Amino acid sequence: MDLSRSGKESGDIAIPVREVAKSSKSGKGIAPPPAASTIRLGQQPPPAAGWRRGVGIIDLILRICAITATLAAAAVMGTTDQNLPFFTQFFQFQASYDDFPTFTFFLAGNAITCAYLVLSLPFSIVCIVRPHVIGARMLLLIFDTLALALTISAASAAAAIVYLAHNGNPGTNWPALCQQFNEFCPRVSGAVVGSFLAVLILVVLVILSAAALRRI
Amino acid sequence: MDLSRSGKESGDIAIPVREVAKSSKSGKGIAPPPAASTIRLGQQPPPAAGWRRGVGIIDLILRICAITATLAAAAVMGTTDQNLPFFTQFFQFQASYDDFPTFTFFLAGNAITCAYLVLSLPFSIVCIVRPHVIGARMLLLIFDTLALALTISAASAAAAIVYLAHNGNPGTNWPALCQQFNEFCPRVSGAVVGSFLAVLILVVLVILSAAALRRI
Question: What are the transmembrane regions (chains A, B) (predicted)?
Fold first, then answer.
């Protein structure tokens, strides 16, 4: 590891220098073996450092986008609360995310993913600065996969309930809500869309991490 | 340039260099690379073939388990159909998966994942027979991630509806169903559990594939 690194940094540059000096002394002109050894030593250690660094930068940008998306989804869901302007003696018509356990799960799932993504930023930066550190990349891949699972789970469950709120289910006597709660429904739908956007980004992140881990 | 630094960091890099220089002085033309450096360079290609093969075998077994789980989930959901023994003049009380769009999605999602997993078996076998074929492993990782996303999406959406069927949602006037449909509900819940089992296996598969791709 160390060997190859130092070879990459400066060892292979030293070879042609010394060699050229000697060969010119003996007057033999061009010597093929040093060139071959330079290529061989130079080839392996930095196979795709630049490419990996590029992947790392894309990773960082996508991560920030995913943070925005999950934060927005959680914030919109958490602040959605609509009271209808009429009420009966016993009951005020009110819709808030915490009337639905699924929406509470949605909020928690997105908040956890957002917090994880913020905490993962330093690791992502490590992957840019040191493209050969495999451990950080592997860690990111594993936790990105788990975050992906959590986020898509929260988003799909919320989507199922949003669908029900929009359309109802006549077979089971579940009425649609969105005629009455005309402010609640679009906000909740927007939150779900934001969360699915984060899911899309996380899928790309997992595949990018795998590509960066790939041994070339 | 940085001669002193490279010499300090790894003195043994200098050995092949000197040797190459000598052989070229003797006028032999292309010199075979020194044994030591050959071994060091040659170490990289077959680092963990046995380990990768082991991962491949675990991958195959887990894949078969996931096929069973998704197939069972889809089959149980597809065959669940309960008619209640009483009916009114206009309406027979009946519950079937296709009364719920979410359950239809669940069935489709699990069936697609099951079909994909069956089609992926040959690739998994290729990864056992030829542990160095990175392309097949990479392909499996990408499609496993997508299958994971699809399956957990289907399972979570169905779980949200199953929860609603069990508990209802008094705030929105959605009554619970499971008191009446005492046969429908346990079967559907079982299907959701089977699907989540498949999700768990797929998460392990993705992480295993990443570990196998890792450059050691």
Answer: 60-80, 100-129, 141-165, 191-213
- Letter string b/e over residues B187-198, b meaning 16 or more CB atoms within 10 A of that residue's CB: bbbebbbbbbbb
* Owner of token pair 């994971």: B148
Query: Is B104 an 8 Å CB contact of chain A?
Result: no
Decide: A109 and A154 in contact? Cβ < 8 Å. Answer: yes
Residues of chain B with Cβ-Cβ distance to A142 below 8 Å are 207, 210
Segments making up each domain of chain B, as ranges: 3-42, 49-213
* Contact by Cβ (8 Å): A28, B27: yes
Q: Which residues pair with B96 in a beta bridge?
A: B81
> Whole-angstrom Cα distance, residue A124 to residue A66?
13
Q: Judge whether residue B1 has pLDDT over 90.
A: no
The token pair at A196 is: 């699915």
* Each residue's pLDDT tens digit, B22-41: 444 444 444 444 444 444 44
Of B192, B182, B166, nearest in space to B106 by CA: B192
Chain-chain contact of B156 with A154 (C-beta, under 8 angstroms): yes
pLDDT exceeds 50 at position B145 = yes
Amino acid in the structure at residue B162: V
CA distances from B106 to A19, A160, B82 (A): 68, 11, 18
Nearest-angstrom CA–CA distance, B113 and B196: 12
Q: How many residues does chain A have?
A: 216
pTM, entire model? 0.74
Cα A48 from Cα A152, distance rounded (Å): 32
Record: contact A215-B153, CB cut-off 8 A = no
Least Cα distance to A97 among A144, A161, A36 occurs for A161
Element (H, E) at A83: strand A81-87
| Pairwise pLDDT comparison (A126 vs B21), residue with the higher score | A126
ipTM computed for the complex: 0.72
Q: Does A148 touch chain B (CB under 8 A)?
A: yes
With tokens 């402010």, the residue in question is A183
DSSP secondary structure code for residue A80 in this structure: -
